[in-house]
Amino acid sequence: MTQTWKYCTKMFGKTILLLLLLTQDSVKSLRLVDLRVPSHEREGGKVRLGCQYDLQEDKLYAVKWYKDGEEFYRYVPRDIPNAYYFHVDGVKVDIERSSNNAVTLINLTQESSGNYSCEVDSDAPYFSVEVRSKYMHIHFLPKTRPRVKGLKELYNLNELVAANCSLGPSRPNAHLVWFVNDRPAPVSYVSGPWHRVSAERPDAAETILQLSFTATETNFINGAIKLKCQATIAPLYQKEKESTHYIALPIIEEKEIKDA
Ligand SMILES: *[C@@H]1O[C@H](CO)[C@@H](O)[C@H](O)[C@H]1NC(C)=O
Ligand SMILES: *[C@@H]1O[C@H](CO)[C@@H](O)[C@H](O)[C@H]1NC(C)=O
Ligand SMILES: *[C@@H]1O[C@H](CO)[C@@H](O)[C@H](O)[C@H]1NC(C)=O
Question: Which of 24, 29, 59, 166 gets the most CB atoms within 10 Å of its CB?
């Protein structure tokens, strides 16, 4: 009995040891810890893409960057110079601001949209390869706020209040919302949106949303109304245009004075 027990514990101990060795072995090779690629960036801007890895006991052979499967940057520590870049449409590498952990891309265009991958390769004896990918969308954003046309400062009772809010061109299309006294306008007040393709940017469009309603004493609180158009191109752009307007009410005789 004691013999068997001894044998069992011996075997059990060996298994534990083997398991430890196996797990340690797999932990020794490199790991790609974090790929930092923003999901949205603006056209004309620049971006720093980060690739964090943990070599453990491995030696780094190369860090490679790809866009849609095409390699555009390679860092090889033992080469002189240790960085290379390759021509890929829409990818302009700032070589001075790129190294083993990050690449900087400048002059982003619509062509820069795509699937970015970082690959980390280790040297002998493990020759491990770790890859991660993330999609980056490039948005074409307007430099201005939304414009509002058609509003007057003063309205008469029952007069039509009508205006258009427009923004653009942009890509993707903007999302426009009209607010009346800080609340989203009733659906019946709003028409559109319309999208008008830009002449100079056939891949981008202007967005227009109309507001129209009849001026009443209920709309104009104490004779005034606040109208606001908010434009959003999520998640990079949100701007608004707000204005206050007045209603001219017919003059009512002061009853109290008469009564007095
Ligand atoms: C992105 O690229 C990687 C590597 O080339 C590929 O494995 C992956 O499927 C791609 N993802 C998408 C969404 O295209
Ligand atoms: C990036 O854009 C700027 C401004 O438009 C231009 O002067 C510069 O030459 C461009 N750089 C590259 C590498 O294309
Ligand atoms: C707003 O724009 C639309 C589309 O261009 C047009 O049909 C409408 O008449 C305009 N409304 C106003 C109040 O200008």
Answer: 166
